[in-house]
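>> received
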Amino acid sequence: MAPESGILSALQPVTSSDPPRPPFQTLDRTASAPYSLSEYLRRWAWATVQATLWRIPRAWGLRRWLLRRFGARIGANAIFKASTRIFHPWLLDVGERSSVSPGVVIYNLGPVTIGTHSVISQDTYVCAGTHDYTRPDLPLLRPPIVIGSGVWIAAQAFIGPGVTIGDNAVIGARAVVMRDVPPDVVAAGNPAKVIKAREFRRDSASSDTPRVVPEGRSPS
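>> returned
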């Protein structure tokens, strides 16, 4: 059977007369404790902090201090809101003056890096963890995510494992980003695709003329 025929056959709807298919994945073989004991203890300690001190209103400096105490690399004046959830601060690197908004989840089973002057808008989910679905035991994978500088990720976007978002890119609201996004572009949709180059306007006091950076080039 040709590969195309096999794919089409697999996509045919299942009817009541078809025999049940045996499950490929066997959850009794998955790792019940994929982390070391020391990492579980650190996660417990961090969860306690995040449920208490982290939630003090307007405690920007305290949150930066707490993250650093747990091994994060946090730049000056980075902002984290009280409802932001971070799973592994020791796998987080955020540049100066970046802002992580209310309801954002940074599920950083693997390393997550955010550059300077970037905005992660409310309820965005940054997911640096997945499973190898080609194996029956579904082993845990922890691919890194890199979000560049000057990036704006709009509300409720999903940033998938292993993705790199280039500097000065814009990700539309509720976009599902499963592949790398180049710098200086606007991407949106599910799955996210580049829809146009990002416009760069000078300060409104000096000029109202928009500047468009061609795809693949950085602003001078």
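>> The helical segments are 3-10, 37-50, 60-69.
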